[in-house]
Amino acid sequence: MIETFASVELPVDEILYMRKNRIEPEKENRNKRISIVTGVHGDELEGQYVAFELIRRIEEHKECLKGTIDVYPAMNPLGIDSITRGIPAFDLDMNRLFPGNEEGDMTEYIASQIIKDIAGSDVCVDIHASNIYLEEIPQIRINELHENKLLPLAKQLNVDYIWLHATSTVLESTLAYTLNSIEVPTLVVEMGVGMRITKKYCEQLVEGIFNMMHEMGIWTGEVSKVREPIVSKDGKVSFINANTSGLFVSKTEHWMNLKKGDAIGQILDPLRGKVLDEIVSPVDGILFTLREYPIVDEGSLIARILER
Amino acid sequence: MEKNTIFEIKGLYRDDFRVTGYTFGKGEKAACIMGNFRGNEFQQIYTCSLLVDRLKKLEEEGRIKEGKEILVVPSGNPYSINVAKRFWATDNTDINRMFPGYDLGETTQRIAEGIFQVIKEYEIGMQMASFYMPGTFMPHVRMMETGFEDVEMAKQFGFPYVVLRKVRPYDTTTLNYNWQIWETKAFSIYTTTTECLDKESAKQAVKSILNFMGKQGLIDYKVHDGYISQTIEDTKLLTVRVKKAGFFDCKVNVGQEVIKGELLAEVVHPYEGMVIEQIFAPEDGIVFFSHNNQPLTYANTAVFKIVRSFSES
After folding, report:
1. Do the beta carbons of residue B32 and residue B74 sit within 8 Å?
2. Phi, psi of A209 (to 5 degrees)
3. Cβ contacts of A169 on chain B, cutoff 8 Å
4. pLDDT band (50, 70, 90) for residue B312
5. Smallest CA–CA separation between B107 and chain A, in Å?
6. Is it true that domain A2-228 has CATH number 3.40.630.10?
7. Most buried by CB count within 10 Å: which residue of A179, A217, A250, B40?
8. Residues of A in contact with B134 (CB under 8 A)
9. For the domain A235-307, what is the CATH code?
10. A259 and A207 in contact (C-beta within 8 Å)?
11. pLDDT tens digits, residue range B26-58?
12. Does residue B83 sit in the same domain as residue B219?
């Protein structure tokens, strides 16, 4: 059932509705609840297809559903509609506003209503795409503070990689941090690239969500065997940034095993027809992040490699 | 006066990205004034330009104190100003959310680090800052409560108000916060506007900064003592919100004294022209912030902040 959990009047003849789709079994126990969230950043669209496919498959075999599933496909509807990462007009990153404030401005109010509505879920999955600049292999990022609780859950989600990252004060304003701090175990998925749908990654994650629901006892349908993810900590990740501004052209494929010295790509100067920089892998490892958007400034992230 | 490039990145098709600093006097790194980081902070860069002009004349007159060095960096982000983008145009990141920066990181982290390496050496740091809410402010000095803040020193600017802000998680990557953590006495200076120039307010800010530096013994300057600043915590400012969205018709000015029950603004229906909400002053006080230069308001939005009369200082 489509439910509006918050609404705000906009200045000229429009109301901003915050909606979710709640799917419940007709007669079964509804005690357990999973929330699937996406669209906090308006230019990250991979979760849109996940939401669609998840709902479609549940509705097709609703008899297998033994708990409640809430799907929130658009946490930042104005951003999605205007191809804007943040909240348009306010120029704010929604994922730096949580837990919000019920008495606050429109943006803070909406953030507070999101938390209020998800509170009480047994698990939440917050699906992000990468930004428009980088392609990411399906992965889950976990603040090391929550490792014990979240790592076993993350392994159920059929991702390729789990990154346990150091805690950072600035991330305390995120949706995931806030939900984890109110005892809603929340996993942040990053995959694909901004403004695009990578169907194979979406389908991979959908399989993972069904597996998680099965493990929770709220899905009795068949589920696929999930892949064993690589798990690593910060120290094992090498960052490669552009040494100069130019046009980045890749010479490798994403999710490739590389040896130290293997070519990753070149930075070119189209005005002069010159190669400005040859980028090679500094370590033996697997390439899990690769630049998608070709124009780079000095410092732009080109790749991340997980050392082997 | 010495003009130097303090940080530089090579451009692909654009001219190189340069951060330019103007140094006055020689010796102990006494004070640094930082201009804009965002591409809409026109008032901030303008205020710095007036300050450079004044310091140049003071230096020519021998009024920079012996052994004291003052650095003015009018713009930490000329690229965004020139293309009318608020944030870094390539990836929409905010340099003022990247401090202390990282020299091997992404572009805006490198810019923040490159600038910070230079300006963290100064004993006093002043940033011409702007707020995310569109509107007009009473001029004030704002500082974060990190435990290193120096309220008594902040009062020496002679601005009407010194505002203390509790640190939120997202503040920890701002220049003001990091300056304080690196033991620079840091002050964020707010004039009335951001996107449009208020020349009078900019001149007042320059006078206040010069007067402050005079009191710190950095320059030979004394024009006026300014206001006896009132210290307020940002959480103690009285927030007045509209309930409805529509055209915003403001009836009062920033700095105006208002009495309880006084009409502050009206919200007008965007199609039918009738008044759909009137906003009244909930208490006696001074209008500290107003949404007054904006044609529209969203619902449930803070449109005024008021300093209550008889607030404790």
Report:
1. no
2. -65, -40
3. 169, 172
4. very low
5. 4
6. yes
7. A179
8. none
9. 2.40.50.100
10. no
11. 999 999 999 999 999 999 999 999 999 999 999
12. yes
